[in-house]
Amino acid sequence: MRFRRTAAALAALALTASACTDADVSRPETALDWKSCGDGFECAKLGVPLDHDKPDGERIQIGVIRLPASGDRIGSILVNPGGPGGSGIEYARSARSVLSEAVRTRFDVVGFDPRGVGESSPVRCLSPSDLDAYIGLDGSPDSPAEVIALEEGSHRFAAGCQARSAKLLPHVGTADAARDMDLLRAALGDEGLTYLGKSYGTQLGAVYADLFPGRVRALVLDGAVDPSLSPLELNAAQAHGFEVALDAFLEDCFAAQDCPFDGSVKAAREKITALLQRADREPLANNTGDGRQVDEALTTLGLLTPLYDRQAWPVLRQALSGALKGDGTTLLRMADVLIDRHDDGTYSNQTEANMAVNCIDGRFPRASSAFAEAARKAATDAPLFGTSVMWSSLPCAYWPVKGEPQEKIDAPGAAPIMVVGTERDPATPYEWAEALADQLSSGVLVGFDGDGHTAYLTGSTCVDHLVDDYLINLAVPKDGTHCPKIG
Asked: How many domains, in total, are found in the chain?
């Protein structure tokens, strides 16, 4: 799973000095040719090296968008919604809802699609029908035949990426994207980077700070990732986070008139378990007209999606009410939000980019038996989601490019970096924010007693004020500041 849902889609639901020198020789295009692209936005392309170790070699184009500041301009604020694989261009298009008016007054809001994503030399691996087949694989295999099907499907995914995107695959890691981001900062004319990164965007921001600590002005890392964990450790923690979020949803559900459950969390969980088992035996009804089978895999994805955002909990109540009566249509629509599948059956390249970045960023086992053992252990702690979350990274076992994880991220000498964590965040558990703030030499932790993925502009005036004051005035909150529950 690995972070996957981006902040942009949630809005739709309701290192060292030597490293700096290496990046500097990339010779960025210092001018961006901005052209109007509607609704007050301007768009441009930034040329960057495909391989930052070969600055005079082949170049690729990075898609960029900006919304100019409306008042007394300080500079630019770069934004990233997460993923990996999320479109920073789409996220910036939502600038008026994802950044406060105070920030938009003082900063040009700048979004970019990281390399391999969207408008920036996208990774491609499978046709839409093949993606449908891959995503429909049973991620909770309970027979040798289902394990073999997962292995074969994961092999096909990795082979498809190699066939269609071999040149890109070695160069889509987070460190490459961070170097692109520094070239963009320079092209924008900003002496230091001001940045808001959510979910996986916190990893991108932390890697940037580690590579270019002297170029940090203000970084907000919201919904933080712990870079010290292995990929399977991250998956296991994320699976547990979804279980915690589900329990919070159920407790809230009992007070709603349209809640399909009564009694206890334990009894409701038993009904959801039975629902997944039923979908495994016989798919739920699909009234979208596209003929897809709402099997256990899509039912699970449909359950996960609304857990990212408390504002989507009413949709989850509706989806579960229908599913318990045999109708999986709403769950299917929620699954399509998670995987960014369009009504016409096409996909963005989010799923492919997500896998490509995760596989190159991490060091994965090279045998499916290791995933099977990890899934077995995860199921003890996360009985509903552990198995499928652990198996979701299996293509990385067959990946054609060796992973190159960042061994240590501490950004020595960087200006204060604000790390924000939400207590019941399903995708990036609060403990990860604590860990990242502790690992960064200048990390400052802000906690929020809340539900859902990420905290800024989700309803907490406490969080919003602290973030805005830091971004605009460089007012650094006290480490360990905790914002109370809302509502």
From this structure: 2
Buried b (16+ CB within 10 A) or exposed e, 323-354: bbeebbbbbbbbbbbbbbbeeeeebbbbbbbb
Q: Average pLDDT of the chain?
A: 93
Residue 346 lies in a domain: no
380 and 264 within one domain? yes
Shared domain for 141 and 196, answered yes or no, is no
Do 103 and 196 belong together in one domain?
A: yes
* Residues 449, 372 share a domain: no
Which residue in the list 165, 199, 348, 442 is annotated as catalytic? 199
In a domain, 352, yes or no: no
Annotated catalytic residue 393: no
- Spell out the residues 6+ positions from residue 263 whose beta carbon is closer than 8 angstroms to its own: none
Residues 324 and 299 in one domain: yes
- Domain of residue 44, residue span: 7-122+169-227+407-483
The sign one gets for the Cα dihedral 453, 195, 165, 402 is negative
Determine, yes or no, domain membership for 205.
yes
Contact between 208 and 176 (Cβ < 8 Å): no
Long-range Cβ contacts of 411-414 (<8 Å, 24+ apart): 411/15, 411/206, 411/209, 411/210, 411/213, 411/216, 411/440, 411/441, 411/442, 412/213, 412/441, 413/213, 413/214, 413/441, 414/209, 414/213, 414/214, 414/216, 414/440, 414/441, 414/442
- To the query of whether residue 264 is one of the catalytic residues in this protein, the response is no
In this prediction the pTM is 0.93
Contact call for residues 33 and 1 (beta carbons, < 8 A) = no
* pLDDT greater than 50 at residue 468: yes
Residue 20 pLDDT greater than 60, yes or no: no
Catalytic residue among 108, 425, 464, 468: 425
Residue type, 25: V
DSSP 3-state of 388: helix
Work out the pLDDT band at 406, boundaries 50, 70, 90: confident
- Per-residue pLDDT band for 18 (boundaries 50, 70, 90) equals very low
**What's residue 404's pLDDT?**
82
The pLDDT assigned to 462 comes to 98
Same domain, 418 and 476: yes
Q: In the predicted model, what is the mean pLDDT of residues 253-279?
A: 96
- pLDDT-based confidence at residue 3 (cuts at 50, 70, 90): low
Q: Which two tokens stand for residue 211?
A: 């590579």
- Clarify whether 425 is annotated catalytic: yes
Catalytic residue among 453, 460, 464, 468: 453
> Which pLDDT tens digit goes with each residue over 350-389?
999 999 999 999 999 999 999 999 999 999 999 999 999 9
Q: 438: Cβ–Cβ under 8 A, 6 or more apart, which residues?
A: 445
